[in-house]
Amino acid sequence: MWRQLLLLWVCVVPFMRLRLALYRGLFGFKIARTAKIRMLSFLDTRELVMKDHAEIRGFGNVFMSMARVELDEYARIGAPRVGLNLFRGRANKGVPTQATLRLGKCAVIELFHYFDVCADVVIGNNVVVGGIRSVFFTHTLFKDQYEPIELKDDIYVGSNCSFQMGVTVAERCVVGLGSVVVKSIDKPGAFVAGVPARVAKEDMGFDMRAAMKLRRRPYWDGTSVVLPS
Q: Nearest to residue 11, comparing CAs of 35, 39, 45, 36?
């Protein structure tokens, strides 16, 4: 309880440098000097790793009972002015394995999304969880079972998508608005849509690099980060 109260106090400290210094000093968070955490995001996680230029943006991002959160270079959670994403783990509930939320290089989670992180949730390089109200579930009510979710590289997820525990989505896929993914998608570059989600088109021809350039976002090309010009 005292730790949560202290985290709540730190998240309203108005000066970012002081706020980040408190996160490092009081909680042992590993936050790069170029990383940023905006005010009013509650970070109840045992471990936090943020690499160069990673950001937790907007306000209202809430991390509850998380074991570990990792943001690679230029990864971002939240939109510029608002976040309101909810991440719930089971770090304090006696789950035998401690789960990690991991964002790859240049990955983006926009706003109003929900992540149940009882098992690992891995968001690959250049993945955009776009729009609003997508949900990721790593457990169910009826089984004492926890299975990870993984999105490979260069994936775009539209609004109102749902992901069931244990699924993996292959690289370069587009997950269409309102899709419910209950089985893994193993065809790279596919357009995925429907309830339940299926491959609607095998070769979508989606170019994440061009999309990131249009959004003026950095892109990981496999060797280095390409910054927007």
A: 39
Residue type at position 3: R
**Per-residue pLDDT band at 136 (split at 50, 70, 90):** very high
∠ CA(105), CA(206), CA(131), 5° rounding?
Answer: 65
With CA atoms as reference, report the closest residue to 182 among 160, 166, 202: 166
Summarised one tens digit per residue, pLDDT across range 29-64 is 999 999 999 999 999 999 999 999 999 998 999 999
Q: DSSP for 72-122?
A: -TT-EES-SS----EEEE-TTTT-SS--EEEE-TT-EE-SS-EEEESS-EE
Q: Is 160 helix (H, G, I), strand (E, B) or coil?
A: coil
4 phi, psi to nearest 5 deg:
-65, -40
Q: Phi, psi (5° rounding) for residue 25?
A: -75, -40
Distance from the Cα of residue 194 to its chain's centroid:
23
Q: What domains sit in the chain, N to C, each tagged with a CATH number?
A: 2-206 (2.160.10.10)
What does the block give as tokens for 114? 């929900």
Average pLDDT over residues 142-160: 92
160-177 pLDDT, tens digit each = 999 999 999 999 999 999
Task: Measure the CA–CA gap between 107 and 104, rounded to whole angstroms.
Answer: 6
